[in-house]
Write a structure and sequence with these properties.
This protein is of the alpha/beta class. The protein has 10 helices and 8 strands. The chain has helices at about 25-40, 60-70, 85-95, 115-120, 140-155, 170-175, 190-195, 220-235, 240-270, 285-315; strands at about 15-20, 45-50, 75-80, 100, 125-130, 170, 200-205, 325-330.
Length: about 325
Protein backbone atom coordinates (compact mmCIF):
# COMPACT_ATOMS: atom_id res chain seq x y z
CA UNK A 1 0.00 0.00 0.00
CA UNK A 2 1.53 3.37 -0.99
CA UNK A 3 2.31 5.87 1.74
CA UNK A 4 0.72 9.35 1.86
CA UNK A 5 4.08 10.82 0.86
CA UNK A 6 4.12 8.69 -2.28
CA UNK A 7 0.63 9.85 -3.19
CA UNK A 8 1.50 13.56 -3.39
CA UNK A 9 2.98 13.04 -6.86
CA UNK A 10 2.07 10.99 -9.91
CA UNK A 11 5.50 9.44 -10.09
CA UNK A 12 4.37 6.12 -8.57
CA UNK A 13 2.22 3.35 -9.93
CA UNK A 14 -1.00 4.41 -11.71
CA UNK A 15 -3.87 1.91 -11.51
CA UNK A 16 -6.65 1.91 -14.08
CA UNK A 17 -9.86 0.41 -12.69
CA UNK A 18 -11.95 -0.62 -15.70
CA UNK A 19 -15.40 -2.16 -15.10
CA UNK A 20 -16.51 -4.44 -17.94
CA UNK A 21 -20.04 -5.55 -18.76
CA UNK A 22 -20.61 -6.98 -22.25
CA UNK A 23 -17.92 -4.94 -24.01
CA UNK A 24 -16.07 -7.71 -25.87
CA UNK A 25 -15.81 -5.68 -29.08
CA UNK A 26 -14.01 -2.74 -27.43
CA UNK A 27 -11.49 -4.33 -25.08
CA UNK A 28 -8.57 -5.04 -27.41
CA UNK A 29 -8.64 -1.54 -28.88
CA UNK A 30 -8.98 0.03 -25.44
CA UNK A 31 -5.96 -1.88 -24.17
CA UNK A 32 -3.85 -0.81 -27.14
CA UNK A 33 -4.92 2.83 -26.97
CA UNK A 34 -4.11 3.12 -23.25
CA UNK A 35 -0.64 1.70 -23.96
CA UNK A 36 -0.15 4.24 -26.76
CA UNK A 37 -1.34 7.13 -24.59
CA UNK A 38 1.13 6.33 -21.82
CA UNK A 39 4.07 5.13 -23.89
CA UNK A 40 5.61 8.60 -24.15
CA UNK A 41 5.00 9.54 -20.51
CA UNK A 42 7.22 6.94 -18.86
CA UNK A 43 4.44 6.12 -16.40
CA UNK A 44 4.43 2.85 -14.49
CA UNK A 45 0.87 1.56 -14.61
CA UNK A 46 -1.43 -1.43 -14.26
CA UNK A 47 -4.80 -2.18 -15.87
CA UNK A 48 -7.30 -3.73 -13.47
CA UNK A 49 -10.23 -5.04 -15.52
CA UNK A 50 -13.28 -6.03 -13.46
CA UNK A 51 -15.66 -8.32 -15.33
CA UNK A 52 -19.09 -7.64 -13.85
CA UNK A 53 -20.89 -10.78 -14.99
CA UNK A 54 -20.50 -10.28 -18.76
CA UNK A 55 -22.37 -12.71 -21.01
CA UNK A 56 -20.87 -11.87 -24.41
CA UNK A 57 -17.45 -13.47 -23.98
CA UNK A 58 -15.78 -10.37 -22.55
CA UNK A 59 -13.88 -12.34 -19.93
CA UNK A 60 -12.43 -14.68 -22.55
CA UNK A 61 -11.18 -11.62 -24.45
CA UNK A 62 -9.69 -10.28 -21.22
CA UNK A 63 -7.91 -13.59 -20.59
CA UNK A 64 -6.31 -13.31 -24.01
CA UNK A 65 -5.23 -9.73 -23.32
CA UNK A 66 -3.80 -10.76 -19.94
CA UNK A 67 -1.78 -13.56 -21.51
CA UNK A 68 -0.31 -11.09 -23.98
CA UNK A 69 0.42 -8.43 -21.36
CA UNK A 70 0.75 -10.27 -18.01
CA UNK A 71 2.94 -7.65 -16.34
CA UNK A 72 0.44 -4.82 -16.62
CA UNK A 73 -2.99 -6.49 -16.91
CA UNK A 74 -4.83 -7.90 -13.90
CA UNK A 75 -8.31 -9.43 -14.08
CA UNK A 76 -11.06 -9.66 -11.51
CA UNK A 77 -14.11 -11.75 -12.32
CA UNK A 78 -17.25 -11.27 -10.26
CA UNK A 79 -19.63 -14.18 -9.85
CA UNK A 80 -22.54 -12.29 -11.40
CA UNK A 81 -23.58 -8.79 -12.39
CA UNK A 82 -23.45 -6.77 -9.17
CA UNK A 83 -23.54 -3.32 -10.75
CA UNK A 84 -20.98 -0.67 -11.57
CA UNK A 85 -20.45 0.56 -8.00
CA UNK A 86 -19.64 -2.98 -6.85
CA UNK A 87 -17.24 -3.44 -9.78
CA UNK A 88 -15.50 -0.20 -8.83
CA UNK A 89 -15.29 -1.29 -5.19
CA UNK A 90 -13.68 -4.61 -6.17
CA UNK A 91 -11.23 -2.80 -8.42
CA UNK A 92 -10.35 -0.17 -5.83
CA UNK A 93 -9.75 -2.83 -3.18
CA UNK A 94 -7.30 -4.66 -5.44
CA UNK A 95 -5.59 -1.69 -7.11
CA UNK A 96 -1.99 -1.17 -6.02
CA UNK A 97 -1.32 2.32 -7.38
CA UNK A 98 -0.98 5.64 -5.59
CA UNK A 99 -3.10 7.14 -8.37
CA UNK A 100 -6.31 5.48 -9.59
CA UNK A 101 -7.94 6.30 -12.91
CA UNK A 102 -11.44 5.17 -13.89
CA UNK A 103 -12.96 5.20 -17.34
CA UNK A 104 -15.60 3.31 -19.27
CA UNK A 105 -14.55 0.43 -21.49
CA UNK A 106 -16.84 1.29 -24.42
CA UNK A 107 -14.26 3.65 -26.03
CA UNK A 108 -16.44 6.73 -25.45
CA UNK A 109 -13.68 7.99 -23.14
CA UNK A 110 -10.56 8.88 -25.12
CA UNK A 111 -7.40 7.30 -23.61
CA UNK A 112 -5.34 10.02 -25.30
CA UNK A 113 -6.67 12.41 -22.64
CA UNK A 114 -5.29 10.41 -19.70
CA UNK A 115 -2.21 12.71 -19.40
CA UNK A 116 -4.57 15.67 -18.84
CA UNK A 117 -5.84 14.04 -15.65
CA UNK A 118 -2.37 13.15 -14.42
CA UNK A 119 -1.12 16.68 -15.09
CA UNK A 120 -4.04 18.15 -13.15
CA UNK A 121 -3.27 15.94 -10.16
CA UNK A 122 0.28 17.31 -10.07
CA UNK A 123 -1.25 20.73 -9.33
CA UNK A 124 -2.24 19.37 -5.92
CA UNK A 125 -5.84 18.25 -6.43
CA UNK A 126 -7.10 15.01 -4.91
CA UNK A 127 -9.84 14.27 -7.45
CA UNK A 128 -9.96 15.21 -11.13
CA UNK A 129 -13.22 14.57 -12.96
CA UNK A 130 -14.04 14.88 -16.63
CA UNK A 131 -16.68 17.12 -18.17
CA UNK A 132 -18.08 15.94 -21.48
CA UNK A 133 -19.11 19.44 -22.44
CA UNK A 134 -20.14 18.55 -26.02
CA UNK A 135 -21.18 15.55 -28.04
CA UNK A 136 -23.85 14.39 -25.58
CA UNK A 137 -26.07 13.21 -28.42
CA UNK A 138 -29.70 14.06 -29.17
CA UNK A 139 -32.03 16.03 -26.90
CA UNK A 140 -33.50 12.80 -25.54
CA UNK A 141 -30.16 12.12 -23.87
CA UNK A 142 -28.75 15.61 -23.34
CA UNK A 143 -31.78 17.25 -21.68
CA UNK A 144 -32.17 14.67 -18.87
CA UNK A 145 -28.41 14.82 -18.32
CA UNK A 146 -28.40 18.63 -18.04
CA UNK A 147 -31.40 18.59 -15.70
CA UNK A 148 -29.86 15.87 -13.54
CA UNK A 149 -26.52 17.66 -13.23
CA UNK A 150 -28.17 20.99 -12.45
CA UNK A 151 -30.25 19.44 -9.65
CA UNK A 152 -27.23 17.65 -8.15
CA UNK A 153 -25.12 20.81 -8.41
CA UNK A 154 -27.82 22.84 -6.66
CA UNK A 155 -28.46 20.35 -3.86
CA UNK A 156 -24.86 19.39 -3.10
CA UNK A 157 -23.22 22.75 -3.72
CA UNK A 158 -20.42 21.02 -5.68
CA UNK A 159 -19.81 23.11 -8.84
CA UNK A 160 -19.32 20.22 -11.29
CA UNK A 161 -20.98 20.12 -14.69
CA UNK A 162 -20.97 16.36 -15.33
CA UNK A 163 -21.47 14.07 -12.34
CA UNK A 164 -22.15 11.11 -14.64
CA UNK A 165 -18.78 11.22 -16.38
CA UNK A 166 -16.89 8.00 -15.52
CA UNK A 167 -13.51 9.41 -16.61
CA UNK A 168 -11.87 10.43 -13.32
CA UNK A 169 -8.53 10.29 -11.51
CA UNK A 170 -8.06 9.99 -7.75
CA UNK A 171 -5.33 9.84 -5.22
CA UNK A 172 -5.59 6.43 -3.57
CA UNK A 173 -6.15 7.96 -0.13
CA UNK A 174 -9.50 9.35 -1.34
CA UNK A 175 -10.90 5.94 -2.21
CA UNK A 176 -9.64 4.37 1.01
CA UNK A 177 -12.00 6.65 2.94
CA UNK A 178 -15.13 6.22 0.81
CA UNK A 179 -17.49 3.24 0.68
CA UNK A 180 -19.73 3.10 -2.41
CA UNK A 181 -22.69 0.88 -3.28
CA UNK A 182 -25.87 1.05 -5.34
CA UNK A 183 -25.34 3.92 -7.81
CA UNK A 184 -23.12 6.02 -5.55
CA UNK A 185 -20.09 5.80 -7.85
CA UNK A 186 -21.24 8.94 -9.71
CA UNK A 187 -21.24 10.82 -6.40
CA UNK A 188 -17.67 10.00 -5.35
CA UNK A 189 -16.63 13.68 -5.84
CA UNK A 190 -19.47 14.75 -3.53
CA UNK A 191 -18.47 12.21 -0.87
CA UNK A 192 -14.82 13.22 -1.26
CA UNK A 193 -15.60 16.92 -0.93
CA UNK A 194 -17.55 16.20 2.26
CA UNK A 195 -14.33 14.77 3.72
CA UNK A 196 -12.27 17.79 2.72
CA UNK A 197 -10.57 16.52 -0.45
CA UNK A 198 -10.00 19.00 -3.28
CA UNK A 199 -11.68 18.54 -6.66
CA UNK A 200 -10.95 19.83 -10.15
CA UNK A 201 -12.84 19.45 -13.42
CA UNK A 202 -11.44 19.35 -16.96
CA UNK A 203 -13.16 19.38 -20.33
CA UNK A 204 -12.89 16.16 -22.34
CA UNK A 205 -14.33 14.63 -25.49
CA UNK A 206 -17.33 12.35 -25.72
CA UNK A 207 -16.63 9.85 -28.48
CA UNK A 208 -19.41 7.89 -30.20
CA UNK A 209 -19.88 4.27 -29.22
CA UNK A 210 -18.32 1.83 -31.71
CA UNK A 211 -19.46 -1.53 -30.36
CA UNK A 212 -22.28 -2.94 -28.28
CA UNK A 213 -25.29 -1.15 -26.90
CA UNK A 214 -25.65 1.66 -24.40
CA UNK A 215 -26.61 0.52 -20.90
CA UNK A 216 -28.01 3.89 -19.92
CA UNK A 217 -31.59 5.08 -19.98
CA UNK A 218 -34.27 6.89 -18.00
CA UNK A 219 -33.98 4.37 -15.15
CA UNK A 220 -30.39 5.50 -14.66
CA UNK A 221 -31.48 9.05 -13.85
CA UNK A 222 -34.32 7.90 -11.59
CA UNK A 223 -31.89 5.73 -9.62
CA UNK A 224 -29.45 8.62 -9.61
CA UNK A 225 -32.00 10.97 -8.05
CA UNK A 226 -32.89 8.43 -5.38
CA UNK A 227 -29.23 7.90 -4.59
CA UNK A 228 -28.82 11.67 -4.37
CA UNK A 229 -31.05 11.56 -1.29
CA UNK A 230 -28.74 8.90 0.14
CA UNK A 231 -25.69 11.06 -0.55
CA UNK A 232 -27.27 14.11 1.09
CA UNK A 233 -28.04 12.03 4.18
CA UNK A 234 -24.56 10.47 4.23
CA UNK A 235 -22.73 13.78 3.90
CA UNK A 236 -24.93 15.79 6.26
CA UNK A 237 -26.60 13.47 8.76
CA UNK A 238 -24.88 10.06 8.76
CA UNK A 239 -23.01 10.86 11.98
CA UNK A 240 -25.86 12.86 13.51
CA UNK A 241 -29.21 11.31 12.46
CA UNK A 242 -30.98 13.02 15.37
CA UNK A 243 -30.39 16.37 13.66
CA UNK A 244 -32.60 15.26 10.77
CA UNK A 245 -35.14 13.15 12.62
CA UNK A 246 -35.26 15.56 15.53
CA UNK A 247 -36.01 18.49 13.22
CA UNK A 248 -38.76 16.47 11.53
CA UNK A 249 -40.11 15.54 14.96
CA UNK A 250 -40.14 19.18 16.06
CA UNK A 251 -42.02 20.25 12.93
CA UNK A 252 -44.58 17.44 13.15
CA UNK A 253 -45.10 17.81 16.89
CA UNK A 254 -45.22 21.59 16.61
CA UNK A 255 -47.91 21.42 13.93
CA UNK A 256 -49.93 18.82 15.85
CA UNK A 257 -49.60 20.74 19.12
CA UNK A 258 -50.69 23.97 17.42
CA UNK A 259 -53.81 22.32 15.97
CA UNK A 260 -54.76 20.78 19.31
CA UNK A 261 -54.02 24.01 21.16
CA UNK A 262 -56.18 26.00 18.76
CA UNK A 263 -59.18 23.74 19.29
CA UNK A 264 -58.69 23.66 23.07
CA UNK A 265 -58.80 27.48 23.16
CA UNK A 266 -61.79 27.56 20.81
CA UNK A 267 -63.61 24.99 22.96
CA UNK A 268 -62.83 27.00 26.10
CA UNK A 269 -64.19 30.17 24.50
CA UNK A 270 -67.39 28.33 23.53
CA UNK A 271 -67.96 26.82 26.98
CA UNK A 272 -67.32 30.25 28.51
CA UNK A 273 -70.02 31.79 26.34
CA UNK A 274 -67.62 34.04 24.47
CA UNK A 275 -68.27 32.18 21.21
CA UNK A 276 -71.84 31.19 20.35
CA UNK A 277 -71.15 28.97 17.31
CA UNK A 278 -71.53 25.34 18.39
CA UNK A 279 -69.20 24.23 15.56
CA UNK A 280 -66.26 25.24 17.80
CA UNK A 281 -66.97 22.41 20.21
CA UNK A 282 -63.68 20.49 20.24
CA UNK A 283 -65.28 17.07 19.99
CA UNK A 284 -67.05 18.01 16.74
CA UNK A 285 -63.83 18.97 14.88
CA UNK A 286 -62.35 16.16 12.70
CA UNK A 287 -59.15 18.16 12.37
CA UNK A 288 -58.46 17.38 16.02
CA UNK A 289 -57.59 13.84 14.93
CA UNK A 290 -55.01 15.31 12.55
CA UNK A 291 -53.38 17.18 15.42
CA UNK A 292 -53.19 14.03 17.54
CA UNK A 293 -51.78 12.07 14.58
CA UNK A 294 -49.04 14.67 14.02
CA UNK A 295 -48.05 14.47 17.68
CA UNK A 296 -47.71 10.71 17.36
CA UNK A 297 -45.70 11.07 14.14
CA UNK A 298 -43.43 13.61 15.81
CA UNK A 299 -42.78 11.21 18.68
CA UNK A 300 -41.94 8.49 16.17
CA UNK A 301 -39.42 10.76 14.43
CA UNK A 302 -37.71 11.39 17.76
CA UNK A 303 -37.64 7.66 18.47
CA UNK A 304 -36.12 6.89 15.05
CA UNK A 305 -33.53 9.61 15.61
CA UNK A 306 -32.52 8.13 18.96
CA UNK A 307 -32.27 4.64 17.43
CA UNK A 308 -30.16 6.08 14.62
CA UNK A 309 -27.79 7.67 17.12
CA UNK A 310 -27.50 4.33 18.90
CA UNK A 311 -26.69 2.52 15.63
CA UNK A 312 -24.05 5.10 14.72
CA UNK A 313 -22.29 4.63 18.05
CA UNK A 314 -22.31 0.83 17.58
CA UNK A 315 -21.33 0.90 13.91
CA UNK A 316 -18.51 -1.45 12.94
CA UNK A 317 -17.08 -0.85 9.49
CA UNK A 318 -15.50 -4.29 9.35
CA UNK A 319 -18.92 -5.91 9.41
CA UNK A 320 -20.19 -4.04 6.35
CA UNK A 321 -21.07 -6.24 3.37
CA UNK A 322 -18.75 -5.38 0.46
CA UNK A 323 -21.62 -5.70 -2.01
CA UNK A 324 -19.84 -8.09 -4.39
CA UNK A 325 -18.31 -11.56 -4.57
CA UNK A 326 -15.11 -12.29 -6.49
CA UNK A 327 -14.96 -15.57 -8.40
CA UNK A 328 -11.25 -15.34 -9.28
CA UNK A 329 -8.35 -12.97 -9.84
CA UNK A 330 -5.95 -13.44 -12.74
CA UNK A 331 -2.59 -11.72 -12.40
CA UNK A 332 1.09 -12.35 -13.07
Amino acid sequence: MPTPEDEKTTGGLVSFVLPVYDEAGSLRELHQRIIEALSIRGVDYELVFVDDGSRDGSFEVLLEIQRQDPRRVRLIQLRRNFGKAAAYSAGFANARGSIIVTMDTDLQDDPAEIPLFLDKLTEGFDVVTGWKFEGKGNLEKSLPSRFFNRVVRKITGIPLHDFNCPFKAYRAEVLREIHIYGELHRYIPVLAAARGFTIAEIKIKNLPRKHGQSKYGLKRYIRGMLDLLTVVFITRFAKRPMHLMGLSGILASGFGGSVIGFFIIAHFLYTSGLVADKSWVMHDRPALSLGILMLVVGAQFFTIGLLGELLVTQYNAAAVDRGYSIKRIVAE
